[in-house]
Amino acid sequence: MKSFGSSKEFNFGKDIQWDEVGDGVRRQIMAYDDTIMLVNVEFKKGGIGQMHKHYHAQVTQVISGSFKVTIGDETKILNGGDAFYIPPNVLHGAICLEDGILIDVFSPIREDFME
Amino acid sequence: MKSFGSSKEFNFGKDIQWDEVGDGVRRQIMAYDDTIMLVNVEFKKGGIGQMHKHYHAQVTQVISGSFKVTIGDETKILNGGDAFYIPPNVLHGAICLEDGILIDVFSPIREDFME
């Protein structure tokens, strides 16, 4: 597997660009090495994380807002303080019900975010 | 390596216990499998994450509050919106300057938190 090295050790939010990913969603890649990657994802109400899957394991903390989250064939509403786990290769997606922020963390690194 | 399986997919903050870890610090294990683990860590002002190291890679998002963070021989002050990366086996620690919350994520799972 190609190596992407690692992020800096200290990463200040004001210094890191936000990437628009469409559908009322933008993300900020905060910290990573080849084994792990942490990404802030900001959603506007109505923003959509389309159903998709990847081989990476994913853990997500809901920081604020409200989200209708689907993992496999189950859908629940999660709010600030809640979290979810997405096993490798399981279809998942989210619809933002109230403006909010998710912390998405992947293992290993999302190579597709680095290109 | 021993397997700990995985957390549930949907995890509601109100349902998950906080573990006191002393020094004005408590934590809540939100989501995991053997490859990744996400933990909320709440600090009171003056709370201390003692200097320590582990073989896991770590990424941390500062959600709120203010922290004096040491990684190796470098120390910086981080606030909400900032993040840090701790390479495997590097000494690190934090002192809480203002009440706050960190999202600590590890790869692989912190076996020591499961016992």
Describe the fold and architecture.
The structure is a homodimer. In chain A, a hairpin with a 2-residue loop joins strand 2 (about 20) and strand 3 (about 25-35). The two termini of chain A are about 15 Å apart. By secondary structure, chain A is mainly β. The mean pLDDT of chain A is about 95. The first copy, chain A, has a single domain (about 20-115), classed as Jelly Rolls (Sandwich), CATH 2.60.120. The first copy, chain A, has no helices and nine strands. In chain A, strands 2, 3, 4, 5, 6, 7, 8 and 9 form an eight-stranded antiparallel β-sheet that branches. Chain A has strands spanning about 10, 20, 25-35, 35-45, 50, 55-70, 75-80, 85, 90-105. The first copy, chain A, is globular and about 35 Å long. In chain A, about 0% of the residues lie in helices and about 60% in strands. The interface of A and B includes residues 35, 59, 82 and 107 of A.
Number of domains of chain A: 1
* Number of H- or I-type helical stretches of chain A: 0
Low-confidence stretches of chain A: none
Structural class of chain A: mainly beta
Q: How many whole angstroms does the radius of gyration of chain A measure? A: 14 Å
Top CATH class of chain A: Mainly Beta
Largest interface: A-B, 42 and 42 residues
Topology:
2 copies of one chain form a homodimer.
Chain A: E1 10-11, E2 19-22, E3 25-33, E4 36-43, E5 48-52, E6 57-71, E7 74-79, E8 83-86, E9 92-107
Antiparallel strand pairs in A: 2-3, 3-4, 4-9, 5-9, 6-7, 6-8, 6-9
